[in-house]
Amino acid sequence: MASQRSSSSLPLWLASAVTLVAFPWWSAAGEPDFAQAQAVMKEHCYKCHGAEKQKGDVNLEEFKDASAIAKEPEIWAKVVDVLRGGDMPPSKEPKMADNSRDLLAGWVEQTLDAAIIAKGPDPGPPMIRRLTHAEYRRAVRDLFGIDFDSAGAVGMPEDPVGRGYDNLAVALKIPPALTEKYVSAADETLARLFDPKAQGNNLAGAINAQLRARGASPAQMRETARALMSRLLPRAYRRPVGADETARYVALFDAAIAQRKAPAEAFRFMFKAVLLSPNFLFRVEPDRAGATQPYHVNDLDLASRLSFFLWSSIPDDELLALASQGKLSDPATLRAQVTRMLASPKAKALAEDFAAQWLQLKKLAEARPTIEFFPTFTEELKESMRQEPILFFDALRTSNLPVTDLIDSDFTFLNGALAEHYGISGIKGTAFQRVALQPEEHRGGVLGMGAVLSMTSHTFRTSPTQRGKYVLEVLLGTPPPPPPNNVAQIEDAAAHGEAKSFRELLAQHATDASCAGCHKRIDPLGFGLDHYDAIGRWRESTKDQPLDTAGVLPTGEKFDGPMELKQVLKAKQQRFIENLSEQMLIYALGRELRPADKLAVKKIAADLTQDGFHFSSLISGVVNSYPFQNRRNFAPASSTKTAAR
């Protein structure tokens, strides 16, 4: 059976990994060695990061060979980032030639990749996680046919967020206070399940049909309970359930009847036990007995990984049936199931959960522009703004469009209110529709969407710094460090200078040595979007003054306005593709990435690029990645204690 596969898959992994690092861009001219990389560092790096001076507590000169570099991947990954971003060397230092920059960054990347391969693949630590509130809601929907936010109804605290996502296993625990909330959530759910009005092709309809049936004997009711549990438990627990386990739940039904409870109460008692069971609330993958090396996950765990990734919910009957038969991990079967699942309306969860969190749409609720300065910025308009990127991202899925449309596109989704806000005519009503965009409408991609533009603004004006930071952090995955604590806010600095425009004011602020390095990366990107006002409306001027939307990046690219900025971002689309691949893999795995995952990200991005950036290729790349399909056992308790000491 497929569930018994183990290290037999490693040669394929190694072959893929070697392909990524064996043919770097310089291969035609000969691979550089440490001496060549060291020569570049002597010329441009050791002055500030060497034996005599260690800015940022970084001494690159102490690394005497490739093996030493490989032992500190986090430091050297940062070196690559600042080299690729043009942040180092500083502008006051002699310029590093492009070929030297590429040689050093490329050599470091190859060195780190080779070290990962030498260690062998690592799927990352095994995790135990509870369902997120969103997963709980969808699981209840798919089990009972009831779409109800029970977590919100009973006042559960929001799921904690790590690395931007609420499904990271390390944060998904159940403290004692939350246990009581789950009891209340189960009660609220079951109250709706046994509402006499509930009907349809779901458990609620089946139960209430039986309860309404005249003359149903106790034996018939008990058989209904057994039949429902036989159907419910495998779905709820995401695995086959034997007759003995089913019988234990039917015994709860029997006990309630013996206490002269009404049949509805007996059903409720039985189902409540399911909703409160750790088998339902937690995702736990069992260890393989005796395994000391990573191995392929069994088919049932693969089914759960797939369904929670693509649907944020439990596997359906078809997926569970294939997994139970050991067929799901067959590549052709797996490919067909991914295609089927992506076509399901349930896959909109990728837009509602992944995209909404990646694009930080939650911040729109606390967007700083106020009604006082922007009377049309109502809660209704904000909700329309929030829906636009979700519907747009979902269209990438349903039409298998290139993910690069997120940078720029010739369409979006609008309703009447949002179209009026954008100055686009011909759209009426509250329903959203796909709208073809014209160049003169100045939209396309997420940077033309009101949600992003509004939540990166201040109370009464735009914030080029916040907008530039958003581009770096969200789209390119290269966030700037937080500002120093002792730096004055721009508004405070206004009283001490003679700057007349906000751009001049920001330039004054950026002259602070502790600020200049980051602001030269951030501010040009933000000013490129300054044709959009604080709530995302297009404008040609501000306070009767023409806008200055020109910018120059540290790497030398020049642009003026959002359209040219998007062309610059398209030229950097490989960085965008790698970041999107990384973000999707974090979300799919439910954990932060580790150095060993770097090659998986590169493989996903490379395959996505080769396929023309189609959305389905991104999903397939994640599903077929080594960390998604493999795991290792939990460390023995004694090893864990030793490591802790």
List the helices and strands and how they pair.
Layout: H1 10-22, H2 34-44, H3 66-70, H4 73-84, H5 98-119, E1 128-130, H6 133-144, H7 150-153, H8 176-193, H9 203-212, H10 218-237, H11 243-258, H12 263-275, H13 278-281, E2 282-284, E3 295-296, H14 299-310, H15 317-324, H16 331-343, H17 349-358, H18 379-398, E4 411-414, H19 416-422, E5 433-436, H20 450-455, H21 464-475, H22 490-493, H23 502-509, H24 513-527, E6 541-542, E7 545-546, E8 550-552, E9 558-560, H25 562-571, H26 573-589, H27 598-610, H28 615-623, H29 626-629, E10 630-631, H30 637-644
Antiparallel strand pairs: 1-2, 3-10, 4-5, 6-7, 8-9
Helix pairs in contact: 1-5, 2-5, 4-5, 8-12, 10-11, 10-12, 11-12, 14-15, 16-28, 17-18, 21-24, 26-27, 26-28, 27-28
Poorly predicted regions are 1-15, 17-30, 492-499, 638-645
Helix-and-strand structural type: mainly alpha
The beta-strand count equals: 10
- How much helix, percentage-wise, in residues? 40-55%
User: How big is the Rg?
Assistant: 28 Å
Distance between the first and last residues' Cα? 40 Å
Shape: globular
Helical stretch count? 30
Structure commentary:
With 645 residues, this protein is mainly α. The chain folds into 3 domains: 32-119, no CATH class; 128-284, no CATH class; 354-571, no CATH class. The protein is built from 30 helices and 10 strands. The strands form 5 sheets. It has a two-stranded antiparallel sheet with strand order 1-2. Strands 3-10 form a two-stranded antiparallel sheet. A two-stranded antiparallel sheet has the order 4-5. A hairpin with a 5-residue loop joins strand 8 (550-552) and strand 9. Helix 14 runs antiparallel to helix 15. The two termini are 40 Å apart. The model is unreliable at 1-15, 17-30, 492-499 and 638-645 (pLDDT under 50). One of its GO terms (molecular function) is heme binding. Residues 25-112 form the Cytochrome c domain. It comes from Chthoniobacter flavus Ellin428.
